[in-house]
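Table S2 (text version). Query chain:
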Amino acid sequence: MKNAFCDGERIELEGTQIAETMSYVYLGRSLNMENDLKEELGRRRRAAWAAFGPLREATDQLTDHELRAHLFDSTVLPALCYAAETWSDTAATLKSLRTVHRALERCLLRYNRRTQLQAGLRSSDLRRISRLHDPAEYLSKAKHRWAGHLMRREDDRWTRRTLEWIPRETKRPRGRPPTRWADVFAARMDQLNAQLETSQNSRRRRPRCSWMTMARERIEWKRCWGPHDK
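Corresponding structure-token output:
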């Protein structure tokens, strides 16, 4: 697998040519140069159903809704959202996750689309009954936590260097740019700065700062900008 800056030369290791591929799985995550999550979302869907299979007999017999939700959220949800903290937050990605999660939720409650329609239940009604966590909220918390770890590292890792790197020699292409990994942090940081500027409590006012600056302070990152805070 190579990017646009690589020439067509062969790569050999100890005399053996390394085969070229368009994508590969590394640490359980499907990677490709186009950063297309379609294949990875399919892998997450299959992993979630595989994790739910062994639990189904137990969850069908449980009468404690809290325990049933805990079992699901501690096994199936992590399988569905594995490595999601490295994804860009797009509407299509969240829709795909929620679609799979709703199907699993119906199966957990022993409904299908037809019986749900006959019972007159909306997706919000099923969520109230199942008491499961929203996958979008789980993704947001995981991404928030990972961003804090990333910015507080001081060992010059490539993950932080690529995040802070700005390509000066290239121009922005025409049209709307694709959603970047850090765009959600920048947007929510702008909202927080606006709220603090209009606050009547002078003790809460502070200079405007970027999300990278705040993420370096563990307490401020957790207290002032927790995931899904309104």
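Notes on Table S2: The chain has a mean pLDDT of 86. The two ends are 42 Å apart (CA to CA).
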